[in-house]
Design brief:
single chain, 9% helix, two-stranded antiparallel ribbon
Length: 159
């Protein structure tokens, strides 16, 4: 889903900051690489295995995961359970030194020899079907100055 851009709180030390998840702006200071992104909605099928089927999302987007911990064993008194989330994917940004940073494609894949790569990624029926049925949200970049960052009055009050 699209969540928005959480407010960033900066502290005195350089690079020390935190994002406040519940205080968001629908617009933000970030542009997106040009290309096809995964549609909003259920993407469960893309997340089942470590393979080359990916959810392509950009700044302001989020993937929400839910599970029922009811089948886990009870904890001894005073214990606290931590959860570990393992993600198998790639991050591609618009850094000046990133190969094709202004575009979503080419997408990385597990067997690539390096990046940027000369060989082509998977093009079987499953991956072509994913392109046609999942990656249906298109962004074509933005003109300079088209982004603004505003918090609603409600978000400023912290609720």
């Amino acid at each position: 889903s699209f969540h928005g851009y959480p407010k960033m709180r900066e502290y005195q030390s350089p690079g020390e900051f935190e994002f406040i998840y519940d205080q968001v702006s629908r617009t933000g200071p970030f542009t997106r690489p040009i290309g096809a992104y995964t549609r909003l909605g259920d993407v469960h099928d893309l997340l089942l295995r470590s393979d080359d089927r990916f959810v392509v999302f950009g700044s302001g987007d989020e993937v929400q995961l839910e599970f029922d911990p009811a089948s886990l064993p009870a904890l001894p008194k005073g214990w606290k359970r931590d959860y570990f989330f393992f993600a198998d994917g790639y991050e591609k940004d618009m850094d000046f030194y990133a190969a094709e940073g202004g575009f979503v494609n080419p997408l990385p894949f597990h067997r690539m020899s390096g990046y940027p790569y000369a060989e082509t990624g998977p093009h079987d029926n499953v991956h072509i079907n994913d392109l046609l049925n999942y990656d249906t949200r298109f962004f074509s970049g933005a003109s300079s100055g088209s982004y603004r960052f505003r918090f609603s009055e409600r978000a400023k009050r912290g609720f």
